[in-house]
Amino acid sequence: MTGVAAPPARTRRVWAWVAIAVVLLVVGGAGAAVTASLQWSQRGALDPDSPGPAGTRALAQVLRSQGVEVTVVRDRPAAEAALAPGDTLVLGSTAFLSDDALRAVTADAGRVVLLDPGSRDLRVLLGGAEPAGVAAEGAVAPDCADPDAARAGPVSPGALFTAPAGVVGCYPADDGYALVVHDRFAAVDGAELFSNDHLADEGAAALALGLMGASAHLVWYLPSPADADAGTAVPTLGELTPPWVTPAIVLLLCAATVAAIWRGRRFGPLVAERLPVTVRAAETMAGRAHLYARSRDAAHTLDALRDGALRRIARLVGLGPAAAPAEISDAAADRLGAPREVVRGILIEDIPATDAQLLAASDRLRDLEAAVRASVHLERTDP
Length: 383
Known about the structure:
Blueprint: H1 9-44, H2 57-65, E1 69-73, H3 76-82, E2 88-91, H4 99-105, E3 111-114, H5 119-125, E4 131-134, H6 147-152, E5 159-161, E6 168-173, E7 176-182, E8 185-188, H7 190-193, H8 204-212, E9 217-221, H9 237-240, H10 245-263, H11 281-295, H12 298-316, H13 325-336, H14 340-349, H15 355-381
Parallel strand pairs: 1-9, 2-3, 2-9, 3-8
Antiparallel strand pairs: 4-5, 6-7, 7-8
Helix pairs in contact: 12-15, 13-14
């Protein structure tokens, strides 16, 4: 059977570039998706605008349905401008605020609820309370005199805190309390109680309404890195980079560009190479014939003969170079009026096993090509 012609080198290069482009697009899309998902999850934690499992959009909607005006702010100036005396202030993570900034932003609030309290927040605002681990699974009764907790009933607490003298502790579990209240400040693990994923559990929603719904206006403040005091902000990558790095990178890019232009492939006119020896076509053919004879591969030898015969017959019957062997065989059979099965056997299907069979197949191939050529010539000379 005849072999299939290999695609041109230019086509292979084009497909190689297409494959590289597809891989780059896939990798870039995957990286963008991962980055977007990480950003979404980071912003979604205790965010009143996030509908994700860790967000608190459901709580914000419940508060608004109860007549509480909820204002979400994400920087300190906006929080100070929105907060009026007597308003409720809800704080997310305060890691970006200094002690003085924390005291200043909570000074005018009627009540302050810490949803992600750290040890510094407890020390500064909650009378010296401290973290006390995490509670085991299961609902816990309030067991305290705080009216908001008493009305809410049992909840399933997360993080626990100590309650030193002067601090009211509710929902006792192990060695701590899930809710601690000191004067106008309250601290609770909002991620385990007030997130969208847990707000409907036990009395979590009722506790949230009791803690945050006392005033008509609530300011929900989510501090950002821009709120850090001067000198305490986390340095950026540009600030950490030595000043000589950027010029060095630019210089390396310029050098790489110049090297690519210098060593890049230049397309110009074809130059004939002077060969030391000129080999005649007849000698090349004889050499290949000796190699085929030495290998005793009759089928491969006949394939080589069929390749040439198929190309010549295709031109004789008016078919292009892309025509399949089966099309050429059927066209030759139709022109000669011979059975298609016989012609296909000569041009494609018959496989010789011995040298004698190879010679017989070669003679049939030669006779078939001669017959097609004769029929074409006869048609051209027929008046």
